Every structure is written in C-alpha cells, then in structure tokens.
C-alpha cells in the first residue's frame, strides 16, 4: 500500500527532520538560532511572512531586532517560537495572522534533541487510539475463539474457572515430590485439553444414552397398554369397552352410541327371509 493513501503529500506527521552537519557547524540550539535551523527543514513554508522579511533584509545587512513586532505589519501565514527549553526542547507554531492582535493557529511543531516533528491533530490521535483498541479487542476475541470450551447439553458453554492459589499449591507439592514421570504420563500432562475433551465427550455420550433409553421405555409402555387394555368392571348390561385406556389426559372423541341388543343379521337369516323361487305373482295369459 502506498504511503500517500494514508497521508496526503503535504502531511509530514509521519516524518522527522535532523541535520547533523548544521548542528556541528553552528553549535547546540538556542533561542537565537533555533528558527534558522527550522527554516532548513521541509516543514518551513517559503511563502510565509517570515521569508518575506528575510528577503527584505537580506541585502541590507541589518539583522531583525524584533521579528515578532515586524510580523504584526503583515497578514497571512507566519511562524513563531512559542516555547523554548534550550538546548533540547522547542515548540514552533504555524499560524495565520488576521490582524495585529488576532492570529489563528494552523499547526504545531516541536524540536526534541535536534529532531523536528510535526504534532498530530486531535483527529489523528483519536483515530490511532481507537484503531489500537479495536485491534487489541480483535486479537483477544480470536484467542478466546481458539480456546472456547466444548458444548455440553446440560451446561452449554462454560469456561472452567481455576483457583490460582490451589494451582500454586499443587505446583509446589509437585516440585517437592520430584518423582520421575514416565513418557506416557508426560504426554498426558502435556495435553490437558485432550483429556478434558475426552471427558466431555464421554459425558455427552452418557447423557444421550440415558435420554434414548428413557424415550424407548416410555414408548414400550404406551404400546403395551394399547395392545393389552385392562379389564373394566362395569354395570350389568353395559359391555366392556374394546379400546385400551388412554395414557393421555385428553378425552377421546365421543362416538355414536349403539344399542347393545341390536346386532347385524347373519347371512343365513338373510336367506331365510327371502321368498321361495316361483312364489311371486303369476302372469295372466292374454286371450287370443
């Protein structure tokens, strides 16, 4: 990714300036020469009012006695040293002069140990802090997702909470014993997660087996009660119901009531009721 995608061409907040040869030639920075050192950096604007004053007095040979008072005669962009702790720390403001007594700050620069930096604005500081916080949260969530506990039907997802005091005591006891551990035991101790997963898997299998066994027993009881209904002792003349006792509390739908004395005729009775063959009315012969 290009650096210009993050910072515009005129933004130097990600860079700093230092010139070792200038420091060796002119000595350590002071309040008198710090602005000359700043003018050699890429942060300095060649079209500022400070540069105009320097161009006006360049050929006269007379130095500016009070540059701050001379800048009040101009309007526009200017630079001014607002704080100085020579030789290690200086603050320079870039500001726009609107009137002799009214200025508006545009940017701030600080010089620390001969290095010139541009101070970031509030938006940059907040965006970087938020990006750092979000990145830390994302990393934490990724770590928790990798070590998420297994799901159990009884408890769901539960993180194992261990007492640090007990863990320390167990470690001390193990150090005091100093017993040799076999290769298989070392492998088991080195992989507690595999043992925990195996125990959780066995517990899940037992819960599912118990649920299936309970369901099968309930189904067998319901089927037996329907196939072999219990004998009911009713009043005389009332036939026993052929339907087994319902296991559900919902009442059965009421059907049509049949007369116990009425029954369907048999085929022999139907044949006896029919008239004998030839017993019908005789046809009369017509007279010729």
UniProtKB/TrEMBL annotation:
Ranges annotated as biased composition (Low complexity): 270-279
Protein's cellular compartments: Nucleus
Family (UniProt): Belongs to the Mediator complex subunit 6 family.
PANTHER family per record: MED-6-RELATED
Gene3D superfamilies, per the entry: Mediator complex, subunit Med6
Function: Component of the Mediator complex, a coactivator involved in the regulated transcription of nearly all RNA polymerase II-dependent genes. Mediator functions as a bridge to convey information from gene-specific regulatory proteins to the basal RNA polymerase II transcription machinery. Mediator is recruited to promoters by direct interactions with regulatory proteins and serves as a scaffold for the assembly of a functional preinitiation complex with RNA polymerase II and the general transcription factors.
Entry's Gene Ontology BP terms: regulation of transcription by RNA polymerase II
UniProt biased composition (Acidic residues): 176-187
Region described as Disordered: spans on this chain: 169-200, 219-288
Keywords per UniProt: Activator, Nucleus, Transcription, Transcription regulation
This protein's name: Mediator of RNA polymerase II transcription subunit 6
Listed GO CC annotations: mediator complex
GO MF annotations in UniProt: transcription coregulator activity
Lineage of the species this protein comes from: Eukaryota, Fungi, Dikarya, Basidiomycota, Agaricomycotina
Subunit structure: Component of the Mediator complex.
Protein origin, superkingdom: Eukaryota
């Amino acid at each position: 990714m290009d650096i210009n995608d993050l910072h515009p061409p005129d933004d130097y907040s990600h860079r700093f300036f230092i010139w070792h040869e200038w420091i060796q030639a002119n000595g350590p920075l002071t309040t008198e020469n710090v602005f000359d050192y700043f003018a050699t950096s890429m942060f300095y604007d060649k079209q500022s009012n400070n540069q105009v004053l320097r161009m006006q007095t360049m050929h006269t040979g007379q130095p500016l006695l009070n540059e701050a008072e001379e800048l009040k005669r101009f309007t526009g962009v200017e630079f001014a040293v607002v704080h100085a702790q020579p030789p290690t720390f200086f603050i320079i403001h870039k500001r726009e002069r609107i009137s002799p007594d009214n200025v508006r700050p545009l940017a701030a620069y600080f010089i620390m140990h001969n290095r010139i930096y541009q101070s970031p604005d509030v938006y940059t500081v907040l965006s970087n802090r938020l990006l750092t916080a979000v990145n830390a949260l994302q990393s934490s969530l990724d770590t928790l997702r990798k070590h998420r506990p297994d799901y159990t039907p009884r408890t769901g997802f539960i993180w194992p909470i261990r007492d640090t005091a007990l863990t320390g005591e167990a470690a001390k006891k193990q150090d005091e014993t100093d017993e040799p551990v076999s290769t298989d035991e070392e492998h088991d101790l080195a992989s507690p997660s595999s043992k925990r997963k195996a125990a959780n898997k066995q517990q899940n299998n037992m819960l599912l087996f118990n649920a299936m066994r309970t369901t099968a027993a309930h189904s067998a009881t319901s089927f037996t009660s329907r196939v072999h209904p219990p004998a009911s002792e009713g009043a005389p003349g009332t036939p026993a119901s052929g339907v087994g006792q319902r296991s559900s509390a919902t009442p059965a739908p009421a059907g049509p009531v049949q007369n116990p004395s009425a029954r369907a005729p048999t085929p022999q009775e139907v044949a006896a009721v029919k008239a004998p063959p030839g017993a019908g009315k005789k046809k009369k012969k017509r007279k010729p």
